[in-house]
Amino acid sequence: MKVTLLAKPLTNVYVEQIAGQFDMPDLTLPFWGSRKKMPMHRIVRLEGEGNYTVFHFADGSQLMVSLTLKKMESRLSPKVFVRPHKKSIINLLYLESIHPDKQQLSVSMVNGDRVEVSRRKASRFIKQVKGFQQELMILDSKPTAPVVLVA
């Protein structure tokens, strides 16, 4: 059984608007001896691999950094990023559906990735998703200021 969460499709413009509401600044990540700024709202999910973290971005690109998932978790916005499993962190803006099963709960991301939810974290994860949905509904009901582009 598949449970769809968001009624409307996710657009880049919508994600850009929401990013401003959820306080999602750019992340500065160590990359090949230098530092690289990455927009936090474009991160779909993070995957831990030992002392490294693989970032999966909305455009399909990936970036591996030499920081643990635990260190990365403290740098991310807790309203939008949740940790459903010890090896992954997901961005709720890109969550497409939840797949409840008797043995294992999992989620599908907009980019097609499927992430397992650990049994220990399942109830907390569902509460976080419901809280996030309520915040989205509140944000959708508020009128937004028009975006003015200056040339």
TrEMBL record:
Pfam families: LytTR. This is Transcriptional regulator, LytTR family. Residues 33-131 form the HTH LytTR-type domain. It comes from Spirosoma endophyticum. One of its GO terms (molecular function) is DNA binding. PROSITE patterns: HTH_LYTTR. Gene3D superfamilies: LytTr DNA-binding domain (2.40.50.1020).
